[in-house]
Write a structure and sequence with these properties.
heterotrimer, A: about 160 residues, alpha+beta, Ubiquitin-like (UB roll), DNA polymerase, domain 1, 2 domains, 5-stranded mixed sheet, 5 helices, C: about 290 residues, Uridine Diphospho-n-acetylenolpyruvylglucosamine Reductase, domain 2, Uridine Diphospho-n-acetylenolpyruvylglucosamine Reductase, domain 3, Enolase-like, domain 1, 5-stranded antiparallel sheet, 11 helices, 14 strands, globular
């Protein structure tokens, strides 16, 4: 069988790629489209390093087939900053030292962005539960949660 | 949050104010890491690249009878297949002596099995093909015939008289007379101080308890990944993430039988290591596949492979016995550790023996360690290797002693705390250390005196780590516009670029934003030892300071030339050259000197190649509050405070981050992380679903108190920071749980089923 | 190994046709949170994957006969946002919402959770306690079945070749009734239930229990409806003695195994504990507390 030809929208731009049925959206983003900001930590939906938005819903790109992206709208870490203007979450991750090795960071930022769009004023507990699907082994989450709360406050104030 | 004030107060070790050190600057690699641009191990691609897959043993212990690769080779798209036979044989006595002894023979056999497999997941062959899917299919077509042997899965099984013996050539080292029969006990280690028997005879109270822990994994989020390319003349490039590009070069060259100069390693960003990336697994396989295929080969592990076949740390038992006088003075300590090494010798049991009693001034100590082979993956380093399990035994037993004496566990520690001049059980006399200061900070912290509710308990525990120095190199290059590049040979595992830039800024006297730190490849800076032992900020930092000083000396010489004065007339102040005798020469900035570099002798730079000595030990004290659900055994961590003497916090935020991250890894170790094997030795929890690392909602904020007792062995007082924080949590959590349920817990992890059985007395 | 075909039928009829015409094994794709893991691990290699998310009735929640009709592919996030269902059957919604992370919630569905056949599926005990039924389509037409009759053992269902679950029906919520689902996992999130307990009960005007259904997950090869546990509550005011009798019935119904997630002793004891706690919540909901 020929590969599937998938037409989709990624970070606001039209995109096309070819894939086989078993290829995940994560495989397609990374290997077919060169968008390597989304990381594969587990390939089973347990670490969240591949978090992307699919039609406005936060998902793990490793648990979506590439073919399912047909006609869909996808947002990845590469689309979070506007040109050289960082998103408040990105700024606060830097200012609040919310990353050590940084491999989980793209997933956290995409997931946290989804949280703040859904709930601009989360409690610490709400933020922790929303982000429970994103594993970080370096930070103990403390500074990540603080960065998210600080970014939320800034975004509410702005 | 006491830490904000503590950090603001600069303890000036060298007698002058710090201008940059101690500032919370934005890390230089940060923007790339928050935008997805940073390239980690799996993010590299090379033109013409193909994909490698490893064939792994499903058996824990088996002889390899035959490997048939014919079917795989016939599959369209398959470019190469390798087995152990493709690698040069390495002498059984070929060892590298570094922080730990490394047997190249064992390493080679661990990377790809020869005649026997020793654990579920042991690599037996590898294949490279044009797509990952074809490689996967080809891997399934490689037929391996095994003669399955009975595995030994625990130290207790392995030490039984009639246990199957893993390696016929291993005889227990460290016992007299040398045994004639091979054994699963690879070695016995002993450290002794004073006269333990006399010490115990003198004690008013003696307590003894035995504790156990399970195999745990470092749990880095980034799986091992590499890409290797080799040309017909043997020149090899390896792109990979690791804790040391020079380590990858040395090990890969050795395993593949190549000269060092033929191998260039280009470091990727590393997505967590914690010790687990101080060894190689994929790189030699990728090189051999690339050589056979004549194409670059990329290999990326799955999470299943990471858990089955890469560096966990040893499960083990710790039996601690402590004797004290009625007033709480400890007069004798005894510690016996049995650690599971995995498939090859080399558990961190000796380090456990050395560290367990290190926080205490005890005149009579005996520590004995057993390194035991089992059919599990070979243990690799994991953050303060060996120390957490030893501290778990000692610090819980101290808690029992405090109860027996009717003494506050903090006061008991204070009374016996090691100080400057204390003789450690492993031989050294401590220089200036800050253990007591961490206890004082714990006592003063509001956490220590906060009230507790029903089913809640508080635990306190301390920990020690040596911290090391070692070989490090740095180059400081002054650009034409006066900006600066600082090149070192250590991967940035958690913010070290930021601390290198801060230290260089301090010496050069220029804004940290004008300094760009670089993690260089193996052909762009001289050799540096790997990132491990909490050594980088200390040792590589020392090299950066010296290299920056060297650059300052060069800048001063250039200024002297420009002014036509003697170089001793030039001082370096606030980032500029100042002529001390004459006021007619206006101070020259770095930019001004750099602009005239071609007229004063060419490019300006500084360098330092050092073997850093004088590493200062790190001590930490943690306080943990938990609540236990008495009907389900479920533990909630309510509050946690990590206190540590860090010497001098170069970048306080990343120092706090180390304390928080280490504490949480320790909490995971204490509560839910463990390898679960079937009886026949297959790993049952090969993913993050069932290898349960803490998630964000499991935890409270982790409060930190950064204590700064400067290390006299470093120009800015730096001590290693990263490893100490994983040492206290196992005992801090277990002591808290014990107090919450009113019974002593001794076996980790304290998962709900295990804890409920303790609560119910089963 | 041959290529995997992929189909996106737009109607139930088309989906039935696709499944019937498959070469090799066909797998239904809803949220994919189980299927993709199995694909990647090499546990399954179907000849055809049928994505049912383009069929409108699989994605809808609507009122029906005073109750609710919920499409089998409605995600946890979608159902959680439905205030009416959440008000009527909070236990069912809680069960679905407990599955995995926020990311998983964006995809995971009731249909997938049930048909994956896991004994530990979080939404299933709550659905069984709620006396939910499912609407099934297949080559021989459609049929209705009780939720507790779908799974036959770990990874196995009673669905015939070509059949798939189209929707679930949650009956009309009686007056003075309530439901709840609780599970025990070693962490706060991201885990498979070691034990799960769903309880649904109704009271008369005097506070006497008139109807009660108790279902347990992860304590047997499939989620079980513990009739004796329900009976222990009926006719009582759901007091401590009745709750203890119900817990005893739950413990009796447990036929668990020792595995990496828990022991027989643990699961048996905690089944009683959780059923009691869930019953208390359901009671509070029934009395409007």
């Amino acid at each position: 069988m020929a590969k599937h030809h998938v037409t989709t929208t990624i970070n606001g731009d039209p995109a096309e790629f070819l894939c086989e049925t078993q290829q995940t959206l994560l495989d397609c983003l990374r290997d077919e489209l060169g968008l390597t900001g989304s990381k594969e930590g587990c390939a089973s939906g347990d670490c969240g390093a591949c978090s992307v938005m699919l039609d406005g819903r936060l998902v793990c790109a490793c648990l979506v087939l590439g073919v399912e992206a047909e006609g869909a709208t996808i947002e990845t870490i590469e689309g979070v900053a506007q040109g050289d203007e960082l998103h408040p979450l990105q700024k606060h991750f830097l200012e609040d030292a919310a990353l050590q090795c940084g491999v989980c960071t793209p997933g956290f930022i995409v997931a946290a962005k989804a949280l703040l769009e859904h709930n601009p004023d989360p409690t610490e507990t709400e933020a922790r539960y929303w982000l429970a699907g994103n594993l970080c082994r370096c930070t103990g989450y403390d500074k990540i949660i603080k960065a998210v709360m600080n970014a939320a406050a800034e975004m509410r104030g702005a | 949050m006491g830490n904000e004030e503590d950090i603001g107060k600069i303890i000036d070790y060298s007698g002058r104010e710090f201008q940059y050190i101690g500032k919370r600057t934005i890390r230089p690699d940060g923007v790339d890491k928050v935008t997805g641009r940073a390239n980690f191990g799996a993010d590299f691609t090379v033109n013409g690249m193909i994909h490698g897959r490893v064939v792994r043993s499903p058996h824990a212990h088996a002889k390899i009878k035959k490997i048939n690769v014919d079917k795989a080779l016939k599959l369209d798209g398959v470019k190469a297949v390798i087995t152990g036979k493709d690698f040069p044989e390495i002498d059984i006595n070929d060892k590298a002596v570094g922080e730990v002894v490394v047997s190249y023979y064992d390493m080679a056999h661990n990377i790809i099995a020869r005649d026997k497999v020793y654990y579920d997941g042991h690599a037996v062959a590898a294949v490279a093909a044009t797509t990952p899917d074809i490689a996967e299919k080809a891997a399934k077509l490689i037929e391996v015939e095994y003669d399955v042997l009975k595995p030994v899965m625990t130290a207790a099984q392995a030490m039984k008289k009639n246990a199957p013996v893993l390696h016929k050539h291993i005889h227990t080292a460290g016992v007299e007379p040398a045994p004639e029969k091979p054994s699963n006990v690879a070695s016995r280690t002993e450290f002794k101080l004073g006269d333990p028997a006399a010490g115990f005879a003198d004690a008013d109270v003696i307590v003894e308890r035995e504790f156990s822990t399970q195999t745990v994994h470092q749990g880095y989020i980034e799986p091992h990944a590499c890409c290797a390319s080799i040309s017909a003349d043997g020149n090899t490039n390896i792109w990979c993430s690791s804790q040391g590009q020079f380590m990858v070069r040395a090990y890969t060259a050795k395993i593949c039988g190549m000269e060092t100069s033929k191998v260039k390693v280009i470091p990727a960003e590393i997505g967590g290591g914690f010790g687990g990336k101080t060894v190689v697994y994929l790189e030699p396989l990728a090189v051999m596949l690339a050589k056979k295929a004549g194409r670059p080969v990329k290999m990326v592990m799955t999470r299943d492979e990471v858990l089955r076949a890469t560096g966990p740390t040893s499960g083990g038992t710790a039996r601690a016995r402590i004797g004290a006088k009625k007033d709480g003075t400890i007069v004798a300590g005894e510690l016996e550790l049995v650690y599971e090494a995995g498939a090859y010798p080399g558990s961190p049991v000796a380090l456990g023996c050395m560290t367990g009693f290190a926080p205490y001034d005890i005149k009579n100590v005996s520590c004995v360690g057993w390194d035991v082979l089992v059919n599990r993956p070979k243990a690799a380093a994991y953050r303060a290797p060996g120390a957490p399990v030893a501290a778990f035994g000692v610090e819980c037993t101290l808690d029992v002693l405090a109860e027996e004496l009717g003494m506050c566990p903090l006061e008991l520690r204070m009374k016996n705390a090691a100080v400057e001049g204390t003789q450690a059980p492993y031989g050294v006399k401590f220089n200036r250390i800050g253990y007591k200061e961490t206890l004082e900070a714990a006592k003063a912290h509001p956490h220590w005196s906060a009230p507790l509710g029903p089913n809640q308990g508080r635990g306190i525990a301390s920990g020690f780590w040596f911290n090391i120095g070692g070989t490090s190199s740095a180059e400081v290059m002054v650009n034409e516009d006066g900006t600066v590049i600082v090149a070192t040979g250590n991967p940035d595992i958690g913010g070290s670029r930021a601390s290198m830039a801060l230290m260089a800024a301090e010496v050069l006297g220029i804004d940290v934003a004008r300094i760009k730190p670089l993690v260089a490849d193996t052909e762009s800076v001289p050799f540096s030892m790997l990132t491990g032992g909490s050594r980088v900020t200390f040792a590589t930092g020392k090299a950066v300071i010296e290299a920056a000083q060297d650059a300052v000396n060069d800048l001063k010489r250039r200024a002297a030339k420009i002014w036509d004065v003697d170089v001793d007339q030039v001082e370096w102040e606030n980032g500029q050259a100042v002529c001390i005798e004459s006021t007619q020469h206006k101070p020259l900035s770095i930019a001004a000197i750099a602009a005239k570099a071609d007229k004063t002798g060419g490019a300006i730079s500084g360098r330092a190649n050092i073997n850093a000595t004088g590493a200062g030990p790190g001590f930490g004290t943690h306080i943990c509050d938990v609540e236990v659900d008495p009907e389900t055994g479920y533990v909630t961590v309510l509050r946690y405070t990590a206190i540590q003497d860090v010497g001098k916090a170069i970048h306080p935020s990343y120092v706090e981050g180390q304390l928080q991250g280490g504490a949480v890894q320790g909490i995971g170790w204490a509560l839910n992380e463990e390898y679960v094997y079937s009886e026949d030795g297959r790993l049952l929890n090969t993913g993050f679903l069932d290898y349960r690392m803490p998630v964000a909602s499991d935890l409270p904020m982790i409060d930190t108190v950064v204590v700064e007792v400067p290390n006299p062995g470093h120009p800015y007082g730096v001590r290693g920071v990263g490893e100490t924080p994983i040492v206290p949590p196992l005992a801090a959590v277990a002591n808290a749980v014990s107090h919450a349920i009113g019974k002593r817990v001794t076996d980790l992890p304290l998962s709900p089923p295990r804890l409920l059985a303790v609560i119910d007395g089963k | 190994m041959s290529e995997i075909q992929f189909a996106t039928p737009q109607t139930v009829k088309e989906a039935v046709k696709c499944l019937a015409g498959a070469k090799g094994k066909a797998r239904v794709l809803a949220g994919g949170t189980d299927l993709l893991v199995q694909l990647r691990a090499g546990f399954v290699r179907p000849g055809l994957i049928v994505d049912i998310k383009h069929i409108p009735e699989l994605r809808k929640v609507k009122r029906e006969d005073g109750g609710f009709r919920i499409g089998a592919a409605v995600s946890g996030a979608e159902l959680g946002a439905n205030a009416a269902v959440k008000k009527a059957w909070p236990g069912v919604v809680e069960g679905l919402e407990l599955i995995g992370s926020t990311q998983i919630q964006g995809r995971a569905s009731l249909g997938g959770n049930l048909c994956n056949g896991s004994p530990a599926a979080d939404s299933v005990p709550a659905l069984i306690a709620a006396a939910a039924t499912c609407h099934i389509a297949g080559p021989k037409g459609t049929r209705e079945a009780k939720v507790e009759d779908i799974v036959s053992g770990p990874g196995k269902t009673t669905l015939k070749p070509g059949e798939f679950v189209v929707s679930f029906f949650l009956p009309k919520r009686p007056k003075r009734s309530g439901d709840a689902y609780l599970r025990l996992i070693p962490r706060t999130e991201m885990d498979i239930a070691v034990v799960g307990a769903g309880v649904s009960l109704a009271l008369d005007s005097k506070g006497v229990c008139t109807e009660a259904r108790v279902a347990l997950g992860a304590v047997a090869p499939k989620a079980v409806l513990v009739k004796a546990a329900g009976k222990a509550l009926v006719g009582t005011k759901v007091d401590d003695a009745a709750l203890e009798a119900m817990a005893a019935a739950c413990r009796d119904a447990c036929k668990p195994i020792d595995d990496k997630r828990g022991t027989v002793a643990y699961r048996t004891k905690v089944a009683g504990v959780l059923a009691q706690r869930a019953a208390r919540i359901a009671l509070a909901r029934a009395t409007g507390e």
